[in-house]
């Protein structure tokens, strides 16, 4: 029996990667998946998704079900509030730079 995979992404072994950013909306997640799949297959590069969501989030599970395996976790805004010193340094930096 020959079964076809329902995954959109192919995990190419490439030195060059394509980075996409998750906008944390379900509607854009579907469109992103289609667009990233086309880019993935056309240029034969590994797709990496940048997100600040945890592994158990509904959108991340959606990407995993579609075959995306490479994730980078960005900075979550709540982490700044947990580390108050880092929050003030970041705030002062933006205050004086901008």
Provide a descriptive summary of the structure in words.
With 98 residues, the protein is of the alpha/beta class. The protein has one domain. Strands 1-2-3 form a three-stranded parallel beta sheet, with helices on one face. Helix 1 links the parallel strand 1 and strand 2.
As laid out across the biggest beta sheet, the strand order is 1-2-3
Calculate Rg over CA atoms.
Answer: 17 Å
Number of strands: 3
Low-confidence stretches: none
Q: Alpha-carbon distance between the termini?
A: 62 Å
- Mean model confidence by pLDDT: 80
- Helix count, DSSP H or I runs of 4 or more residues: 4
- Classify the helix fraction into a percent range: 40-55%
Overall spatial form: elongated
What percent of residues are in strands? Answer: 5-15%
- Tell me the major beta sheet: 3 strands, parallel
Q: In total, how many domains does the architecture comprise?
A: 1
What order do the SSEs take from the amino end to the carboxyl end, as H and E? EHEHEHH
Query: What structural class do the secondary elements suggest?
Result: alpha/beta
Secondary structure: elements and pairs:
Elements (H helix, E strand, L loop, with lengths): L16 E5 L4 H18 L2 E6 L6 H8 L5 E3 L3 H6 L1 H14 L1
Parallel strand pairs: 1-2, 2-3
How would you summarize this macromolecular structure in one to three sentences?
This protein is an alpha/beta fold and 98 residues long. It has helices at residues 26-43, 58-65, 77-82, 84-97, and strands at residues 17-21, 46-51, 71-73. A 3-stranded parallel sheet has the order 1-2-3, with helices on one face.
